[in-house]
Structure formats: structure tokens, C-alpha cells
Write a structure and sequence with these properties.
Elements (H helix, E strand, L loop, with lengths): L3 H8 L6 H6 L4 E5 L8 E6 L2 E7 L5 E5 L13 E2 L4 E2 L6 E2 L5 E3 L1 H6 L12 E2 L1 E4 L2 E4 L20 E10 L3 H6 L5 H14 L10 E9 L2 E8 L7 H4 L2 E4 L3 E3 L3 E9 L2 E11 L14 E3 L14 H11 L16 H18 L11 H4 L9 H5 L4 H4 L3 H8 L9 H11 L5
Bound molecules: FE2/S2 (inorganic) cluster (FES) and fe (ii) ion.
């Protein structure tokens, strides 16, 4: 249970708020690069700031103020040129650093036009593994962490976004909540398919550990032992707002105090014998959350999570909760945020920020699925593992995978469409 003031500290993300300033110190995934293929301009709201993401014709990425520095027209209705983005109202041209390059009327009529003071707010953007990451914090920006899975070859990757109507922190608390798998995904999942009993293997034991890049949670369920990788390796609540499950990442990126962009990156190694496989383009798609009646879609795993997150209210009221021993990880995570916020207020740099280019190049994380994704397995062996067998049959994480993404996946894996 938290006081209202402590809850606000965890959840408010606007510029100048403690958490808003902390999250701005980390590169945040904000889109798939392929989302800009058809339209190179995309309006984006991040941590309460209205922005425009673009790729100019020279291939440079920019993230600038949604409103033009001239008289504040909407830059998402402008267009990109060889360098920069041009406002459609009076033609001012800005580059990815926010510098104003052209002011057509002034440039024509004034022999010595000055553009001083006409810069647009702009943030750096970097591409990695098909994702676009933005950095909204103080310069110089730290290194972009290249997590080891981003360096894996011979795999099919896809990026899925969802617009989640609630605060980011309740989504991130789900990254350190092992018991919900038993109830939300197993027992409820079974009920949704007509099951009549709560037959999921019970959680018997939990352990939470802290490390530089977040927390590891470990579990033993009925039928498992401490020799199982769920206990010896575990899963990672990635600092500050991610989740790493071995073959995929999820991030909960604040849009504003009451909305979150869910960004997920998936990797599936092609079966042995299908290498070399080179993916030309990492597809990006948006998962719809509601059905025609306005109710949440409940058939897919992350859609189920979203039912829980949004169900806690726009901003979960943590003055009314009852944390128990299943929530030890959640308490640990909150404490680390409070400690980091305190340290930042004292002028320190928060943890997990990488300043050395070498250290950022390929960062290994505890990973239950490393061999599967680096060595690969034969197609026949997929059938021996229920989760992998299911993964070949259909994309169970998010509802709404487009047919063309499914086709590309089937082709990459060398399987026949069911
Ligand atoms: S408002 Fe953008 S150029 Fe005038
Ligand atoms: Fe979940």
C-alpha cells in the first residue's frame, strides 16, 4: 500500500516530474522502423509531449515537436525532404537536430536572414533490430544498450504495438508478477476455451533477485523442480520499463499519465537447415484491443495482460491494495524506483545507464531460451515442446497478426500453412 503522494511519484511522467525525468534518462523504443515505410511521418505522444517521428529522404530519423516553431502548425501534416521535415503552412524546414534550415519568405526577401531562436525541440533517434529508440533526456545521450537478442541471426523478428489505456507503472508491475501466469493465462485461458476447473500447476515457490539491468524472478510450479530453468535461470523484469522472456521483449512506454504504448519485439529462430535466413524487413503491426461490442479481446496472452492492466483503472489506486508474499518482487521494484528517484534528486545518475560504447555492444541477459535461439533446433523437435508447437501454429501473444506477416513467418520457418 502506498500513500497518494508516493503513488504519484511512481506514475507521473510529465517533464519535470521525478519519474518523468528518470525515464527520460533511458532510450525508449517508440516504433518499428518499418512503420515509416508507407508514410515517413508518424505523430507520437511520449511522456506527455506531442512529437512527430520521421525518416527523411536521406534516411535520417528525427523526433521533433509536433508544433512548428513558426506559428505552431501540426508538423505531422508536413512532408520530408532530402534533409529534414518541412511544415506545410509556410514551408519552414527543420532537421533532426531541430535546426531551422529554411524559412522560404525570409530567405527570399532578406539578404541576411537569421534563424536564431527558431529551433524546434528535437530528440535523438536510433535504429536497432528493426526498432526505433528515442532519447528524451539531458545530453549527452548514453549509449543505446544492444541486448544480445538484437544481435541474433537466422531468425524471424516482428514488432507489435498496442495502445493501452492506463498508466505505464501498473503494466511494468506485471513484469515481476509470476503468479499471474497460473491464473490469468492458464486457468482463465482454459475457462475462456470452455474449461471447467482450475487445473493449472500451482506456484510452490518464488524468488526475486536484483541485478544491474533489473530483476530476475524464479519460480517452481507443481511438476517442476529447482533443476528447472524457470528456477535456475528465470525471467527478467528489465530496468526501468521492460520485460524479457527469452525470445521476446516487451516495453511499457508512457504516452502520458493515463496511456501507455506497449512495444513488443519477437524473435523466432528458423529450424536447423533453413539457415542462412536473412530477414529483409522487420514487420511492425498494431494489435487491436477491443471487439465490436467495445469489450477487451481476451483470446491472446498479452491481450489478457492488458485486461488486467487497464482493469486496475487509468492510474491504479495503490492506497487501496493489499500486497502479499506473491508481491515481494513488486515491492522490491517500487523500492528500487524510490531509491533511484532519491539518488537522482541528490544529483546522481540513475543505475543501468551505459556510457561505454564497448559495454553497450552486446549485453547478455539471463535467458532460458538462449540455445534455442542461437543454435536452433530441428523442425521435428518443435513438436516436442508444447509452447514451440503452438508458436508454429499461430501467434499467441497478440491478437490480430496480419496475414502477410503470418505468410512471411510460414515461409521463413519452412512450414506448411495449417
Ligand atoms: S507554422 Fe510552420 S511554417 Fe508557419
Ligand atoms: Fe502475462
Amino acid at each position: 500500500m502506498l500513500t497518494p503522494a508516493r503513488n504519484e511519484m511512481l506514475t507521473r511522467v510529465g517533464r519535470g516530474t521525478p519519474m518523468g525525468e528518470l525515464l527520460r534518462r533511458y532510450w525508449q523504443p517508440v516504433a518499428g522502423a518499418s512503420a515509416l515505410d508507407d508514410n515517413p511521418i508518424k505523430p507520437l505522444r511520449l511522456m506527455g509531449e506531442d512529437l512527430v517521428l520521421y525518416r527523411d529522404r536521406g534516411g535520417r530519423y528525427g523526433l521533433v515537436d509536433r508544433h512548428c516553431p513558426h506559428r505552431r502548425a501540426d508538423m505531422s501534416y508536413g512532408w520530408v525532404e532530402e534533409t529534414g521535415i518541412r511544415c506545410g503552412y509556410h514551408g519552414w524546414l527543420m532537421d533532426e537536430t531541430g535546426r531551422c534550415l529554411e524559412q522560404p519568405y525570409e530567405d527570399t526577401t532578406n539578404p541576411k536572414p537569421s534563424k536564431a531562436g527558431c529551433e524546434a525541440k528535437a530528440y535523438p533517434v536510433k535504429e536497432c533490430a528493426g526498432l526505433l529508440f528515442a532519447y528524451l533526456g539531458p545530453l549527452p545521450a548514453p549509449e543505446l544498450p544492444v541486448w544480445e537478442p538484437f544481435t541474433w541471426a537466422n531468425g524471424f523478428r516482428e514488432i507489435v504495438l498496442a495502445d493501452v489505456p492506463c498508466n505505464w507503472f501498473q503494466c511494468q508491475e506485471n513484469s515481476i508478477d509470476p503468479v499471474h501466469f497460473e491464473w490469468m493465462h492458464d486457468n482463465w485461458g482454459s475457462r475462456l476455451r470452455g474449461g471447467q476447473v482450475n487445473a493449472a500447476a500451482k506456484h510452490l515457490k518464488l524468488k526475486f533477485e536484483e541485478f544491474e539491468h533489473g530483476f530476475i524472478y524464479k519460480r517452481v510450479r507443481e511438476g517442476q523442480s529447482e533443476q528447472d530453468r524457470y528456477w535456475t535461470v528465470g525471467r527478467v523484469a528489465l530496468w526501468p520499463n521492460g520485460f524479457f522472456l527469452g525470445s521476446h521483449f516487451e516495453w511499457r512506454v508512457p504516452v502520458d499519465d493515463e496511456n501507455t504504448l506497449s512495444v513488443a519485439w519477437f524473435f523466432m529462430r528458423v529450424p536447423k537447415g533453413r539457415e542462412p535466413y536473412v530477414q529483409e524487413r522487420v514487420p511492425t503491426w498494431v494489435s487491436p484491443l477491443k471487439d465490436a461490442s467495445g469489450r477487451f479481446i481476451t483470446s491472446h496472452v498479452i491481450n489478457q495482460d492488458i485486461v488486467a492492466w487497464a482493469g486496475q483503472g487509468r492510474i491504479a489506486d495503490r492506497t487501496k491494495e493489499n500486497l502479499r508474499s506473491s508481491d515481494i518482487g513488486i515491492a522490491m521494484m517500487r523500492k528500487r524506483f524510490f531509491d533511484e528517484l532519491e539518488a537522482m534528486a541528490a544529483g546522481k545518475e540513475p543505475g543501468g545507464i551505459i556510457r561505454s560504447a564497448n559495454a553497450a555492444q552486446c549485453i547478455a541477459l539471463p535467458n532460458m531460451a538462449r540455445e534455442l535461439n542461437t543454435d536452433g533446433i530441428a523442425l521435428a523437435d518443435f513438436g516436442k515442446d508444447p509452447i514451440l508447437r503452438q508458436r508454429l501454429k499461430e501467434f499467441r501473444h497478440h491478437y490480430g497478426q496480419p496475414a502477410e506477416v503470418r505468410r512471411a513467418f510460414v515461409e521463413a520457418m519452412g512450414i506448411a500453412e495449417a
